[in-house]
Design goal:
By secondary structure, this protein is of the alpha+beta class. 16% of the residues lie in helices and 17% in strands. The structure holds calcium ion. Calcium ion is lined by residues 110, 249-250, 252-254, 256, 294.
């Protein structure tokens, strides 16, 4: 267990245990008690009312017209994973376990290239230099945002000719997505991060227990998702119908990084007799594997189901000619992107958790 992890656990009074070399962490002071009695079967979702002061809002990246729309997502309790009866189910989607989720905001759309470019190519800093801004005289918060680590230049155009304007950024590593979230947090003065796997699936389901947020019938998926049958590349965000929470492209377009390490049997390590409070397999120095959710433009409909889990692997960087390979870019992951979330009640130790990767790939 790393020093960093020990700090994390002390700061948040988490309950943790080791499984297969990965720590599974339950936040908010441990498992909630008695919640299971309110959810008699995995086919029922307990949806709590939104806090009265939780409204949609829009962020604007300073110095630009770029906006991020944030949508409130209610809290509640559900069973993560899919039932054994679900068509095309994969084994790592079970066993289903009860999860308690606190309310949060989530970006309505996947993060687009123009925003990601501002971070990854330091366009904000270059603009300020062109305008003659004295960077040393900026506020401490802006200086801190400028100081967040940025990606090294990729060896090629990471859009791979698949389009740019209003399209989701692709090909970034899990570390890079985490650092971009930290840059946004510092720049905007709120805690933005990747959702946990449990938060992501909760948001994707939109209060539904069916395979998709619109039901079980995959023949309807073209109304809601870009996938292999209706596109040959990522598409502009927000062009398909939203889910019941008002989120677009949770199914398809690009698969989305979540905070968690991938472990095929993660759910079986959670208690079966009570609801876990937002468990997460917290990132560490291991480069692989992390979870991407929702399926992509390159997947079949069955791989866009709310419960489908995909772990990253070395094949995602096979074309990267650099040695060591980039910690910032997955050259072959034209199907992966991310979106951000913000907790309604901040969770210290999680909201401000910083990617521990600071060195070249291969660090153990
Ligand atoms: Ca997506």
């Amino acid at each position: 267990m790393t020093d960093l992890f020990q700090v994390f656990t002390q700061a948040t009074r988490v309950h943790c245990r080791r499984i297969l070399g990965i720590s599974i962490v339950c936040l908010s002071g441990g498992f909630s008690q008695g919640v299971l009695a309110q959810i008699p079967s995995p086919m029922k979702i307990e949806l709590q009312p939104l806090p009265a002061d939780m409204k949609p809002y829009t962020e604007t990246i300073p110095g630009t017209s770029l906006k991020i729309e944030m949508v409130p997502v209610p809290g509640g309790t559900y069973w993560i994973g899919s039932p054994e009866t679900e068509a095309d189910r994969n084994k790592d989607e079970g066993p289903q376990r009860a999860i308690k989720i606190e309310p949060f905001w989530m970006s309505k759309h996947e993060i687009i290239w123009d925003i990601y470019d501002t971070y990854s190519f330091s366009l904000d800093i270059k603009r300020k230099k062109n305008e003659g801004v004295d960077l040393a005289k900026q506020s401490d918060s802006v200086k801190a945002a400028d100081a967040v680590t940025r990606p090294t230049p990729p060896y090629a155009d990471m859009t791979f000719g698949m389009g740019h304007d209003n399209q989701p950024a692709i090909c970034m590593t899990h570390h890079s997505a985490m650092e971009c979230s930290r840059w946004l947090s510092t720049l905007l003065g709120k805690s933005y991060r990747l959702p946990t796997e449990g938060e992501w699936e909760w948001a994707a389901r939109g209060g539904q227990t069916t395979a998709f947020s619109f039901g079980d019938d995959p023949s309807k998926i073209g109304d809601y998702a870009w996938y292999v049958e209706n596109t040959e590349k990522p598409q502009q965000v927000g062009k398909k119908k939203p889910n019941p929470f008002g989120l677009h492209d949770m199914h398809g377009n690009v698969a989305e990084w979540v905070l968690d390490h991938y472990s095929a049997d993660a759910y079986s390590k959670l208690p079966a007799d009570k609801a876990s409070a937002n468990p997460v397999l917290i990132p560490d120095l291991k480069e692989y594997s992390y979870v991407a959710r929702g399926g992509s433009w390159d997947d079949d409909a069955k791989d866009l189901r709310s419960a489908v889990r995909r772990g990253s692997d070395k094949e995602w960087s096979v074309q990267d000619p650099q040695r060591p390979q980039s910690i910032w870019w997955h050259t072959d992951a034209t199907f992966v992107g991310f979106r951000i979330m913000r907790a309604y009640k901040p969770t210290p130790g999680l909201d401000d958790f910083k990617s521990p990767i600071v060195k070249q790939k291969g660090t153990k």
